[in-house]
Amino acid sequence: MTAGTVQRVLGLLIVLFSMTMLPPIGWGLFYDDGTWGVFAASFLIVAGIGLLLWWPVQRIRQELRLRGGFLVVALAWIVLGALGATPLLLAETPQMSFTDAVFEAVSGLTTTGATVLVGLDSLPPAILYYRQQLQWVGGLGIIVFAVAIMPLLGVGGMQLYRAETPGPVRETRLTPRITQTAKALLSVYVGITFVCAVAYWLAGMSFFDAVCHSFSTVAIGGFSTHDASFAYFDSPLIEMIAVVFMFIAGINFALHFLAWRDKRLTSYFTDPELRSYVWILGILSTFVLVYLLWQQQYDGVGETITKGLFQAVSIATTTGYTTDNFAAWPGALPVLLLFASFVGGCVGSTAGGMKVMRWSLIYKQSVREFQRLVHPSAEIPVKLGARAVNPRIVDSVWGFFAAYIIVFTVIMLLLLSTGMDQVSAFAAVAATINNLGPGLGDVASGFGDVNAVAKWCGVLAMFLGRLEIFTLLVLITPTFWRG
């Protein structure tokens, strides 16, 4: 692993990231909200930092190996999360501390959607747009974005792609070349975002709101341009459009690409993870609706369906949009929805959580152990669909599950030590490590009143959740640093 190669790629990624400061300049000029200078200065600062890193090592052309890929991915998310806070620190409105600005930027880039801001309706439009754009950029992964133009960087992209997608069953290449694969995923991502924006606009959103909310919907981010989130629009049609696109964004984007390339839907119907995803959302939504009807939470069946279905899909896919305060729902529903975020969406989607694939394998492994109790000599493979799963993959899933529980427990204990109550601490960790956003207790309406230490714990949890634990934890193991 060559430090110069890592430095060169990281510098170029920072330069690329600085370009995300340019579109808000246009919005600032259009709305004359006084922020265009903030974003222009942020662009120069971030681009300058990237160039300072890149310039001394620009002539290095050594191939980036797998370990270097892991290091670049981890450093990129940490550094870009910090640099993403630059406009929020420079802006006069809102006035944010360093801790709050980094928390907000990391929450956006990791598509968590937890916020420390209030009074969104009165913030400059360029700032609101920037928050949404952060989520959109982070949705498919800033590293995958960079891989799409990796030939221009002169560095092989496969190592970055593997490090960025450490799921239980890594995607095979959709196209012969990794750059083509990344471009294909980006094309699908942009296409779905465009259709979502048009649907919102036709349903009654303003052009600005339609663009902004399409970004956070397809990214499964949850940021909104209004304090009331989707309740601001008071439109069942808009809510149902959001449900459709949140569901779509929770599906493996490789399936979307295959369906588009082959011009048929076979890839959807034959995917075992997608079937499990549909079953989980279906059962959860049905239970929520029946319980709300039984408790007569709302005046009519129509309102119950729209409110119940929206919250169930939003929280289960870890989007985090709300049209009502689900934390005030009766009985076990608030905790049930929070637990649903631990599952999240499919591998290869923009959703958070542990992913449907992992939970499916854990369930099938548990069933196999019961069968072995009755038939101890039988050879019973774990299968996904008709295919047997490599035992090493099953082992890695259990390893991930163990690491997840340990990390969750440690961060929760840290939050408890800062004075948070048990419900709030548990919900805060779940909301951040699952990249969900809203929680229960003190964090039901945001993280603005949480103490600074707890916010930094939340930042760590968001990074761990977005990088799926292992990509970050591997950096602290002695094995990684041995030659």
Q: What number is the mean pLDDT?
A: 88
Strand order of the largest sheet: 1-2
Report the uncertain regions: 145-162, 164-172
Distance between the termini: 8 Å
**Structural class by sheet pairing and helices:** mainly alpha
Beta-strand content: under 5%
User: How many helical elements?
Assistant: 24
How much is the radius of gyration in Å? Answer: 22 Å
Helix share, percent: 55-70%
The main pleated sheet reads as: 2 strands, antiparallel
Count of DSSP E strands? 2
Order of helices and strands: HHHHHHHHHHHHHHHHHHHEEHHHHH
Looking at the structure, what is the overall shape?
A: globular
Structure write-up:
The longest helix is centred in the C-terminal third of the chain and has 27 residues, at 391-417. A two-stranded antiparallel sheet has the order 1-2. The termini are close together. The protein has helices spanning 3-18, 22-31, 36-54, 66-83, 86-90, 98-109, 125-140, 142-148, 150-153, 158-164, 178-203, 207-218, 236-249, 253-262, 266-269, 272-295, 301-316, 333-340, 356-374, 391-417, 422-433, 452-466, 470-473, 478-481; strands at 383-384, 387-388. With 483 residues, the chain is mostly helical. A hairpin with a 2-residue loop joins strand 1 and strand 2 (387-388).
Brief description of this entry?
This protein has helices spanning 3-18, 22-31, 36-54, 66-83, 86-90, 98-109, 125-140, 142-148, 150-153, 158-164, 178-203, 207-218, 236-249, 253-262, 266-269, 272-295, 301-316, 333-340, 356-374, 391-417, 422-433, 452-466, 470-473, 478-481; strands spanning 383-384, 387-388. The protein has 483 residues and is mostly helical.
